[in-house]
Amino acid sequence: MPIDLRSDTVTRPTPRMREAMARAEVGDDVLDGDPTVTALEVRTAELLGHEAALFFPTGTMANQAALWLLGEPGTEILCDARAHVYDWEGAGAAVFRGVQLRPVTPRGLVIDADDLRAGFRSPSRYAPRASAVALENTHNGAGGAVTSVASLAALAETARAQGCAVHLDGARLWNAAVAAQVAPADFARLADTVMVSFSKGLGCPVGAVLAGSRARMSRGWEVRKRLGGGMRQSGILAAAALHALEFHLGRLADDHHVAREFAREVHGAGGASVVPPDTNIVMIDCPPGVASTDVVAVARDGDVLLSPWHASRVRAVFHLDVDAVQAKRAASVVAAAFESLARA
After folding, report:
1. What is the pLDDT of residues 39-94, one digit of tens each?
2. Burial class (CB in 10 A: 0-12, 13-18, 19+), 30
3. pLDDT digits over 271-302, tens only?
């Protein structure tokens, strides 16, 4: 079987997770509530330091619900120029809420408070007013980079000084917390709403949670229904997430470790340059004359699956289905791919 490093979304439920799903107590979550979903929402809200939470089928839907809750039609929401909500969510904010996203270009890997401050428009009757700021931690487009608690607090303070609410796309917030050695709530409390995903590093087949105030989540239930995200006997999915919180959260550090080892072995091969990973995502820049699609094709011949991030960058993501032995083998295959293409 190939070593699949295309994303941490490719993980499959473990046998124990499947058992937890099979045993789940269920109900109709739209009609009168599913007990396992309720347990997950309560547990996740506690972990994130918020009053309430809602279970969603996907992180994208949860993000879009948050932008609906925080943004106002005819205004704009500021975000990092490489944010997931900007690049990978199909212009959903414009389609569903009538808000436009205003990208802020970072001077470093991700935006900081000074970048955000400079990104706000000067007040004008001709320009749209900003209603919210969307942040992301870890930052997917920046290679899983972690924004520290202090930096995130400064960003949130800057946003609120402009009268803006704050959403945190925390699809991989679990990874950020493990890497920074802090509680997830230390990040999450800084935002008005926060989304966390269960289908990435935690290895669940489906699911994300949006957390915030009880009043916002009450409105969020309506938005989720409007977006088509009401699910029925969804306790079988929530059971997987509860299992992951108990048994998979603590092992995310293993993914970070093998990502660093992989990065060390690949860096310099054939002139390739690796962005040192903060977490489980490794970005590899190709040397001049080597295309990312060619690297992906050669690695595939060696039973290693990668993603072409753009024309000259390749991405590898580590997860619970890839152990240290497999990661070492993958590094050997990828390094050889760069060396062979550099010689061609």
Report:
1. 999 999 999 999 999 999 999 999 999 999 999 999 999 999 999 999 999 999 99
2. middle
3. 999 999 999 999 999 999 999 999 999 999 99
Number of H helices, E strands in the chain: 14, 13
Name the domain count of the chain: 2
At residue 208, φ and ψ (nearest 5 deg) are: -150, 165
42-45: Cβ within 8 A, 24+ apart? 43/242, 43/245, 44/196, 44/209, 44/211, 44/241, 44/245, 45/211
Same domain, 94 and 131: yes
Shared domain for 93 and 217, answered yes or no, is: yes
Residue 215 inside a domain? The answer is: yes
Query: Pairing between strand 307-310 and 313-317?
Result: antiparallel
Burial class (CB in 10 A: 0-12, 13-18, 19+), 61: buried
The two structure tokens encoding residue 248: 């998979």
Position 2 in a domain: no
Whether residue 270 contacts residue 280, with contact meaning beta carbons closer than 8 Å, is answered with no
pLDDT score for 344: 77
Residue type, 260: R
Distance in angstroms (rounded) separating the CA atoms of residues 245 and 47: 10
